[in-house]
Amino acid sequence: MWMRKGLVGLVVMVLMGAAGLLWLLWGEHKAETWLPHPTGPFAVGRTIYTWNDAAQTDPLAPVPGTRRELVAWIWYPSVNVRSRATTDYLPTAWRAAVERERGVLITQFITRDLSRVRVHSLLDPELSSQQKTYPVVIMRAGLAALTAEYSTLAEDLASHGYVVVGFDASFRTAVVVFPDGRVVTRTPENNPDIVSGAEQEHMIQKLLAAWTSDMAFALDQLEHLNTADPAGRFTGRLDLQRVGVFGHSLGGAAAAQFCHEDSRCKAGIDIDGAPYGSVINEGLRQPFMFLLSDHGAASDPAARRIEANIHAIYDRLSPEKRLWVAIRGANHFGFSDGALVKSQRLQRVLRMLGVIGIDGRQQLSITSYYVHTFFDVYLKGAPSSALHHPPAEVALEIQRGQ
Fold it and tell me: What are the tens digits of pLDDT across the range 6-60?
């Protein structure tokens, strides 16, 4: 009898605790969230294009013969129109699709209300006239993540005088919403998280090939925009002789492989991505940076293999063309806006438990600094000293530089 009563009491306490936690998370969900202010001198604009590939079918589409479609998000240096409102973090139709796809627990409790996430980009302003042309950087999100989830990095880079282009692709990005109202989600055949072993490896290789092909297609489309942009904004304004590429996680692996395959890439960055593809054995010619989270000592075979693959690329590069930086206490998922729009209460608990070792805003600040500074050095000819002697607040968090 006493044991039964004790168990009932324990269950009641657990339920009350869970209810209290959900109540706290729900209250936090409605809080307004501002992304970090860009650090460069330019105001930032954002526009969206839809690109359809009439020449090539999508190899990852469930129906053979389906044409490739991308939704491209472009951040760029803009005129500062103070009367113009900033754009939404995600358009309304995108938010609705994301909420349906991710479910109530994640969207209503674990994540801040995306309609109350504030960005600094203006909606469709004119390109700044301060420069005749601007270098271009292709940005690739991690695995199935949405491009908009890297708005912090994109806005900061654009504020330093770059046209930043990311894109979401049907059947491999978690959710893609097209202007005609179609919502296309990732198919299970393109989700390596639900398989393992050789099947997972094979799927990742297919995704890598698709993403690098998409990146080449995106650059082709930018060449068309530079020739004749229907909106007139980018015609003759893109410096496609100065193209950088960076990505996070599998997007970082895609950045390395793309730079290996396509000479249009002049500099690249892999943000915490395990390399895949022929780049591991054949290396790179362009300047390249590995910007990593805090993995500690590689203790298991998988971690040792990843580190060996990074070294296989890095060690072939001449010292003046390479950089290896690990951020002390950084978490793999803290390189995206998730560090800010996921529950801060839960993240504080994770920091107390030692799962996360650095504040999300600080991790993004360090990442933004290294991304724009690396491209300043290798696309704009800035002195490399800023990479090797960063500001104190950045340098204090650097674990290793080689």
Answer: 444 444 444 444 444 454 555 577 789 999 999 999 999 999 999 999 889 999 9
For 255-313, give the DSSP string.
HHHHHHH-TT--EEEEES----STHHHH--SS-EEEEE----S--SHHHHHHHHHHHHH
Answering whether pTM is above 0.85, one says yes
H/E element, 363: helix 360-380
Sort strands 43-57 and 67-78 into parallel, antiparallel or unpaired. Answer: antiparallel
What residue has token string 């996360």?
A: 356
| CA gap 252, 238 in Å, rounded | 23
As a whole number of angstroms, the distance between CA 220 and CA 38 comes to 28
User: What is the spatial distance between Cα 174 and Cα 187, in angstroms, rounded to a whole number?
Assistant: 9
Question: Cα(first)–Cα(last) distance of the chain, in Å?
Answer: 65
**Per-residue model confidence as pLDDT tens digits over 86-117:** 899 999 999 999 999 988 777 777 788 899 99
Cβ atoms within 10 A of the Cβ of 262, count? 16
Pairing of the two strands 267-271 and 43-57: unpaired
